[in-house]
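agent: user wants the structure for VWA domain-containing protein from Neobacillus notoginsengisoli. delegating to structure tool.
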Amino acid sequence: MNKGKFLIVSLIAAVVFFGIVYGGISLTSNLGKSKKQITAENAEAQLDKMYSKIDVAKGKPVKGQIDLNPADLAEELPDIDKFPVTVKNSTDSFVEIFSSPEKSGKGNDAWINEVAEDFNDSKLKVDGKAVSVKIRSIASGTATDYIKSGKYIPEAFTPSNEFWGEMVKESGVTTELISKRLAGNVPGIVIKKKKHEQLVDKYGSVNVKAITDAMANNELAMGYTDPFASSTGLNFLLTALNTFDKSNLLGEKAVQGFETFQANVPFTASTTLQMREAAKSGALEGFVLEYQTFINSPDLKDSYVFTPFGVRHDSPLYAIGDISAEKKQIIEKFAEFAQGKKHQELAKKYGFNGLDQYASEMKTVDGATLSAAQKLWKEKKNGNKPIMAVFVADVSGSMDGEPMNRMKESLLKGQKYLGKDNSIGLVTYSDDVTINLPIAPFDTNQQSLFVGAVEGLQANGGTATYDGIVVAIKMLKDEMKKNPDVRPLIFVLSDGETNQGHSLDDIRGLIQAYKVPIYTIGYNANLKALQTISSINEAASINADSDDVVYKIKNLFNVQM
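agent: tool returned. relaying tokens verbatim.
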């Protein structure tokens, strides 16, 4: 062979060699991925395989003393300083105003802050004294809890809508409506454009009746927010009940309609942010949102259609408590100041006052009916599918001290919100995994065992988080073979650091295949790691490193349990 041919053959051989080598690497890599790929068909075999590699112990059952007293809302609420003062008072004569965050935040959500700063700069006087206001940004539902519990009562309150004012009034706190409207806003359902067109084709138009019918017929995947905490969520609940029976929101016809509708609701979110993340993932075709947020979100305006519903969100202003005549005059002057031309134009710039032509067919509901509707939602939101949940608690050495104490407090106080119709189990993990409490209905006996198990937790050893999750999934799947008509959930309580056992990559496919939402609660935590776990199936993640952890967990359990 001459030198030229030899070089060509050598070059071809080299190319083939490198092709085989790198092709082999690529193939091996793909094979590795395919081994990890878990489908619904092979999920059980993969689960059993993973479970067999975990050293699982059985905990000794120990009963604890159950506290049968009702939960103390005032005790659960953190110090009010947890919620920021966005505008400070500039004089000794002032009123503090609780304001909903869509107008007391930052950027387009800072309207009332700018009004308050202008008001304070104006040096207005009452009885010869310069006056001012102090704005505290706090969600309407949380603000209502503070006022109703008596833990902290401001002189004034501007929630998103009048429902919260009615509930404050019903609680016995003196409440006077000073202004029905500071800035106009409307709640709505945003639906993907293609789905909206399909609904128009079938129902002729899209309104709440068409949407609830579509939901009942399983033609629309829509989510909404917690009616205990969210103005839009509460409004949607009342609007749906009103759609089913206008004459009696809590009557049998309304309840039956709600149960049929709710059976096909795939997602109730703790927060609007969580709901929007679920929509981004493709899990939802529609969700509830205020118009002011919608109009300031280009990604939504381009892809969704906004349909208004319910009572308007016009930010009413209330005087709260037994205040002096001077304080009441300050509130009245502030309302008048906010309604001036300059500040109404500013409101429009920030997305308010955009749908002034919309008028609600539903009248404001009294506080007693609103509270009863919330209770109805809590009882009926899971329909005929009770919850089956496993708590997976981190008892590794890194949880020693304050994180462990906070976790115990969270579970012991939070368990008061676990419905008796649900079934509960408890797993702990460090180097290995222990089933402290097999899944069983959360009756008095199971509650006592749960309390006893939590009280006995001690921190030691390494952190095998994903082994704990595998064991929880296995427990749920084994129980669901006996009782398939339940909704499975997992709650992971951890600092988020994993250094032993399976990895997230190992079990991600398993979590996806079984579609079990995993809610995470982080104590002194690597929050990003926990958020990654929760995001797989659109669950929420909570930062428990604050004095409001019990209140946060109460709200989470209210929505999910």
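agent: one observation worth passing along. The first strand starts at residue 56 and ends at 58.
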